[in-house]
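Illustration: DWNN domain-containing protein.
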Amino acid sequence: MSSVVYYRFLHQKVRSVIHFDGTSISVFDLKREIIIANQLGSGVDFNLKLYHSENPSLEYELDTDIIPRSTYVLVKRSPSHTRGGRFNNASRYVSGKPRIKRVPMASAATTAPTVGAVADENMSEEDRIKMMFADQSNAWASAQDELAQHKVIHYSHAAPGAAAAGGARKDDIPPPGYICYRCGKKDHWMKNCPSIADPNFENKKILRTTGIPKSLLRTINKDDFNEDNLTKNENGELFDKDGNAILVTEDGDYAIAVADSKTWKTYQEKQQNAAAKQKREFDNKIIACVEQDKKLQFLDPLQPEPTLLRTPIVTTPCCPTPDKVNKLKNIYYHQPDLEQTLIENDFTCPNCGAEDIFIDSLVPAPQLESDLAHYIDEKQKELDIADPASRKRERDDSPDPDDPDSKRAKGDDYPMNNMPFMPFPMFMPPPPPQYK
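Result:
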């Protein structure tokens, strides 16, 4: 009659069945059948464990344990590992025999002292304790007798250079590309570094170039490498006179990291293009409002497309008022643009054609600048928009929260009065000027 045992891997939801003859099956045979049924291979690279379904933390540890039929067990497959000096895997379930835990035979002379007396049921608690300590003393004495027969092997670290004097070993020659990160050289292991025996050696911490692209490294010629120009911080790291950290490459050469100027330039261009786009969108909204309100005095007459006037705003002495508009739609100009236009047209007024309009005779228009600024502020509130240029100026003028000097108030530039318990400062800046 065929019997069954149900099993399920921990990562599965559906349980499987193993058929066998008899009323029970051993742990060894069940593991073998599970490996064969699931085609798990030779079992060299994994280990197989069985657990009780009622108590998943309780394992079937011995291969000779018997599992009754119709039992439900849990199966766990884990990577193979080394335990007790031998490789522990599931290969024995495929090609081996069950593991039997054997007790090694010991010599009579060695085991005789370790045999303790049999405790009597009528012994008192104090006698039992004395007998326990006596057994421990006997066990320690037998262990000492056994250790006395072992050969003593003394181990001592060889001094630098001793291996070469007494015969070089293969592991004393470092492979190509190895670098001693204690001194930065390549001809010895770090454990054999000559600086270990040097009491005056300063342990200089040389950083590695791990993770830094070679295109961002600049190699330093060792002939030009002057250690007198180097400084060392509290962590022992080396820096040159410009503050660059000294790195050592995989070839043993010294190098410093350079800035990624190409990426930084690309980032700056993207930021400038985004800011210019925002400014252009803002100006287009204001220009649409200017044209709708017919305030043409706010537009630049020298530009082919509608453009807001920029400060400083000036006008020519021949056309001081808006009723002098002739060729252009406006008599107010951006001063640098008007100066360039006058130079290119032999100092002729672009509106009325008057000659000898020199640059030093231009008339400022502060009232129009004030009206334009007030108009833009009103439209910002009305349209709920903000000028990107003004936001940038606010960021530039705002104090840096990480800068301790920016956190001080303006009045903190001068010292406060000394408290009675405070020592008088050795140096004080001059007092603030007194205005009458």
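Reading the tokens back as a structure: The chain has nine helices and 17 strands.
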